[in-house]
Design a protein that fits this description.
15 helices; alpha/beta; L-fucose Isomerase, Chain A, domain 2; 21% strand; 5-stranded parallel β-sheet; 34% helix; Rossmann fold; single chain; 549 residues
């Protein structure tokens, strides 16, 4: 018989363990490590002031020059040495792959606290919300908290509660379950009719490589999707690359020239390792065309490209292609060998990073906004960061908490100030995008928004929905916020209606949020009502956030 496996030692009463997860890309983990180390030092000091020792459950790697868990297997090995009833803190200052630690967290029996620094730098808030959404889907109980420097009263009071009771209770009074009877009759009927049509004439989400970013919360079970009339076509990104090779240079140049004619700017250079080159842009144009053609062949109603492991080593970034797909006004793409324009007259909704929850949301938005005669251009964004802003905006004073909603370039130009004429493409950061490629960058135009998030919880589909306003901040404040986040990416300055910063963080089940514009507040309210009714009729549990009934 083999030797009996040694069990992890039980922790002392004043000891708490810390774990953290990182990227799969070594370059990203090394770049983000200084911020993570600084955050851990502040968090450790906060625990010490409460009389507790915060101990790392895994060591810094001298060979790799960082202290992140960087694979699912490594995470499983780390948890072999963690007592199942230990008090456990997951802390992050960077984007991270949740599946690195999810296996261990799912089987852990002690209190779990997830924590992030309030910073837009890498960003830990996005990583935190992804793990939180994954734990919610997994049905795993946990508590969560966030702080700029871990000395504020909000954090300290929450920490006291967790150390004392093993849980943190946040204010969720802004969340109200939808009462369909209180919706305007016309909106309720339109939404229900659109849902019945979708159930009868079913839709397909084209999924290019499911789940390779570790976003467990972004994968929806077929058993939940299918009753709503939505099915998946599972596609391979290798097929996308192969199809790109069949797109001619002339076709790619036509896309580029179409964008130039509309005033879009490309920050082109000569060094492909550090600068955006014309060759990279033309490859992105080929991806746009190839994605459209594959989508038509499989009859897809929306698609998601997962530009991460694998594809990042084969082609430039997918973000320019994604932003074009999401826009109602975009370069025409013809079926091979014909004059038939594919998906003419509107967007082919794209869900960035193959977030299937966002895909369902984009599909529903497309149906509702089209039925209402509105521009159906939509996108998801990261819930990146935010700060209170008080001062003059471009169209009046602003005194509110203003969120930075930001995604890696997949936002549609119709959401930007001046559209394509206000858009530019800049080379994506090399630590994430080794082969370059440009973003579709712009500033979100001022206007009324409907925001939403579809998610899976308790074996059912849910959707949180609310209203927001995109405000226009002075150019210097926009530039400051870009410096605090990722300056190559598009940005929307969003003020949520009736939802505070901490309420949003405590409730939101994902790193992503979907947005769509409406021409005025009354139409935004109507669009929200139609969309809520459609989701409800599809069998989704709808929750209105900050919106009373």
């Amino acid at each position: 018989m083999g030797a009996r496996e040694k069990r992890p030692a039980k922790l002392k009463a004043d000891e708490v363990l810390l774990i953290t997860s990182g990227d799969l890309r070594l370059s990203a983990n090394q770049a983000c490590w200084p911020a993570q180390r600084e955050m851990e030092e502040k968090l450790t000091a906060a625990f010490a002031r409460k009389g507790f020792k915060l101990l790392r459950a895994h060591a810094y790697s001298e060979a790799e020059k960082h202290g992140f868990i960087s694979s699912q297997r490594q995470g499983m090995e780390v948890f072999l040495n963690i007592h199942t009833r230990a008090r456990l803190v997951f802390a992050t200052a960077a984007w991270q792959y949740s599946h690195h630690v999810l296996p261990g967290l799912r089987s852990h029996k002690g209190p779990i606290l997830t924590a992030a620094n309030w910073s837009g730098q890498w960003p830990g808030l996005v990583g935190l919300l992804n793990l939180n959404g994954s734990l919610v889907k997994a049905g795993k109980k946990f508590s969560t908290v966030w702080s700029k420097d871990f000395t504020d009263d909000f954090f300290l009071n929450a920490l006291d509660e967790w150390l004392r009771e093993g849980k943190i209770t946040h204010d969720l009074s802004h969340v109200h379950d939808l009462d369909r009877k209180k919706l305007p009759a016309e909106s309720a009927e339109l939404g229900a009719r659109l849902a019945r049509t979708l159930k009868r004439r079913k839709a397909i989400l084209g999924v290019f490589d499911e789940g390779c970013m570790g976003m467990y919360n972004a994968i929806l079970d077929d058993e939940l999707l299918n009753p709503a009339g939505i099915y998946k076509e599972r596609l391979s990104q290798s097929a996308l690359v192969a199809r790109m090779r069949k797109v001619s240079e002339a076709e790619a140049k036509a896309v580029y020239e179409w964008l130039i004619e509309r005033g879009m700017q490309f920050n082109l250079g000569a060094d492909p390792a550090t600068e955006l080159t014309l060759d990279q842009v033309l490859e992105q144009a080929k991806m746009y065309i190839a994605a459209m053609r594959i989508s038509r062949e499989f009859g897809c109603d929306a698609i998601g490209i997962q530009y991460q492991q694998g594809l990042k080593d084969m082609t430039p970034a997918s973000d320019l292609a994604e932003g074009l797909l999401n826009n109602a006004d975009r370069p025409p793409v013809l079926a091979e060998g014909t004059r038939e324009e594919l998906y003419a007259g509107g967007p082919l909704p794209h869900f960035n990073e193959v977030d299937e929850c966002a895909g369902v949301d984009a599909l529903v938005t497309n149906r509702c906004w089209t039925a209402l005669g509105l521009d159906p251009s939509t996108t998801l964004h990261d819930v990146r960061w935010g700060e209170h802003y008080k001062g003059d905006g471009s169209s009046g004073p602003v005194d509110a908490f203003v969120w930075v909603l930001q995604i890696s370039g997949a936002a549609p130009a119709n959401h930007f100030v001046k559209g394509y004429a206000g858009a530019r493409s800049e080379r994506q950061p090399a630590m994430y995008f080794p082969l370059g490629g440009g973003s579709l960058k712009g500033v979100g135009k001022q206007g009324e928004l409907v925001w939403s998030r579809v998610f899976q919880e308790g074996g059912k589909l849910h959707a949180d929905m609310g209203r927001a306003t995109a405000v226009s901040l002075p150019a210097e404040e926009t530039e400051r916020r870009w410096r605090e986040t990722t300056r190559q990416w598009p940005m929307v300055h969003a003020v949520l209606h009736g939802v505070s910063r901490d309420q949003m963080m405590a409730r939101h089940r994902a790193n992503h949020v979907n947005i769509a514009y409406a021409p005025d507040a009354a139409m935004a309210d109507k669009a929200l009502a139609v969309k809520a009714a459609m989701l409800k009729e599809l069998g989704v549990a709808v929750h209105l956030c900050g919106v009373g009934q």
